[in-house]
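dumping this here before i forget
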Amino acid sequence: MLRYLGRYQRSIGYLLTLVVVICLVSWVKGDERGISWPQRIWIEATSPLAAALSRARVRVQRVIRSLMEIGALEVQNRELRRQLAEMESLKAQVELLREENRQLRAMLGFRPPPGCDSISARVIARSPVRWFAEVLLDRGTADGVSPGQAVTTPAGLVGRVTHATPRNARVLLITDPASGVGVKVLPGGDYGVVLGQGVPDLLQLRFFSREIRAGPGDLVVTSGLGSGLPAGLLVGRVTRIMKTEDGLTWLATVAPSADLASLHYVLVLRAAPAEEGGDG
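structure:
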């Protein structure tokens, strides 16, 4: 038997070699679907990992896209906020110009009292801690402004000039507690003095007489007596009448006619120059 196998040993070797070659070719070439069984085993072993990696890649791509979209939205939001701030600023400027235009139009129709002329002035400064005490004007002695002159708006009296330089003037407002203005109440004709209370919408009127005819709604105008201000300038309206604490005299609260919280332009009243007469 061994001699028989030895006789055909070379042929058997060729046959085994042929079988190995055929197997190798089948591994590489694969079956009729183009996939060999080692490749199929590899694919089946690694497909869960490949699927997981694919899902992870999709998620990463989505996160990257989301981050890019968020960045773009943040840029757009910053631009929109900037545009909104500009619009708000423009709106505020328009409202300010509208208010200044209203005040200027009212000043055009103002008629100063007899014996006076007026010069317009712009409010250029107010103290934040003394907002209803004084203002600074852009007119001064070079423009004929001097201490003691009345300062008003077409709506009503504002105050009087206390200091003046060549280019500027300081005005004490009627709302300052240091301010006192001689007034007359119409139509009854009662006299008194109006004192500031440090707030924009309230003045106190102290009557000189124990018997008065004034009542709520009456007009309060400058009397032209003692205060150095021209007579007939509107100060405000009586809102309430009451007795003093001792019950001997009367008090009244007065609402100012001028908007003292929002002053942009005012009128300074000066003595009108005397007309020069000529010999015939």
